[in-house]
Amino acid sequence: MxxxxxxxxxxxxxxxxxxxxxxxxxxxxxxxxxxxxxxxQSERKPATTGSVKIPMTMTEKILARASExxxxxxxDNVWVNVDVFMTNDISGPxxxxxxxxxxxxxxxxxxxxxxxxxxxHYIFTTDERANRNVDILxxxxxxxxxxxxxxxxxxxxxxxxxxxxxxxxVALAQEGHCRPGEVLxxxxxxxxxxxxxxxxxxxxxxxxxxxxxxxxKLLLKVPPSLRFVLDGEMPDYLLAKDLILQIIGEISVxxxxxxxxxxxxxxxxxxxxxxxxxxxxxxxxxxxxxxxVPADSTTFKYLEDKTSLPxxxxxxxxxxxxxxxxxxxxSKLEPLVAKPHSPDNRALxxxxxxxxxxxxxxxxxxxxxTEDFLAAxxxxxxxxxxxxxxTFLVPGTQKVWMDIYTLTVPGSGGKTCSQIFEEAGCDTPxxxxxxxxxxxxxxxxxxxxxxxxxxxQTMMNLPTGMIMEILSWLPLKSLSKCSHFQxxxxxxxxxxxxxxxxxxxxxxxxxLSYNDKEVVCYNLKRKRFTKTDIYAKKDYxxxxxxxxxxxxxxxxxxxEQISR
Length: 564
Hints:
alpha/beta, Aconitase, domain 3, iron, IPM_dehydratase_rel_enz, Acnase/IPM_dHydase_lsu_aba_1/3, lyase activity
């Protein structure tokens, strides 16, 4: 197994002050990283698929097949044929608009059976603009005769909508759209979730999506690959979320920027498909282009009753070149959390026992799958205590919602997750959707409309989305003790006056207030307030959580919360 940089250190259990080791990167520059060394394993020799002139990684092989090239190397730019394209109610309307503009109002998509349209983000709301987005998806899908449009019409009862599924990344897998060896592109950064099936899956922007809709192709640069070998028996108290937080904590949120993250090892082989999806789901939080897990018997069994389409799995060659390799002994790891405000701000869960929280949220494409709710139910069952803070439950899909009410929890004497949650005092499981993960309109279920300290089973802990009105889940009285918020920082004035930022703008500023004449922002880097004039009869443009929204002066003048 060839690797440009392999990390070898003595065995050491992870602590908040992990053991440091030195290694040489490809250019010979010495760096320091933190890691947990796995026990020595026998040499692995993955199977080779197809005609190979030079050793290639899984990602290189998939893109080579999709671009009809005999071989590819990192850095190559190739036109890739797309097997599946997915969009949702957040980015779908923009992608559709670009498609219509560039290809014509009467143009047809390149393949109606390869386009998957899944409304899931801002669904159960009375917000007219959010509802309009779903209408746009519906009209487009009817015009184009899209085969896989998972529509919802009756918002009062999701069960009355058999076509509606829920969170797109979970639904893609459950409906059989994820297949080994294929290329899946979606207008959502967490499209990388599908890499759990041994395919290349990544998120793209609206402009790229509009082009894909019209041509079925996209120009992609082949990413270099990082390999993560996870070995050892996984303790019962760990989930894949702990594993990916460990990895992100090691390499940082920029450690895999435009790189493929390949996961393998005995631990990965023991994970079910939902846990593998969690592992790949968060590669984007490390900057990864895509994440990928080699397909195996677990993958094939999951797909048996979900798709009849043929697929061809690929595997990295034994001598494939990896930019770096990281090895972990999972049996030595402990439960982890990511403290505000970055996924790589890793800490042992036991070290955070004295931190007060105001609420708990279990859901999202990361933590809203059946396996996640079973794990939560086991915790409540073992504890035998009532929850002390509001605990919100948001199933990812209709199937997950049904599992909560029908699957019995091992060791519970026949109780279902729903029964255990009810006994613990949790909120009733909500309608399946992304719900408050990305914020949403003010009537979105579990959305925070005031600053609170929240424990989230989601993928992000940034001051955007659900927590766009929060700067820390530490008690506010402790903010002055944090290195990021000194007394001299003008931002402290916001908390003293209980004036919280409305949202984080993509340009590194926080929107504080607005009226019919000006917008007041706070510059996070320069630590100062700025004002921007709004010229008469013009709209002001914001970029919020990667989603563009246009705010009319009428809305601004009313002083209403901006809806995305």
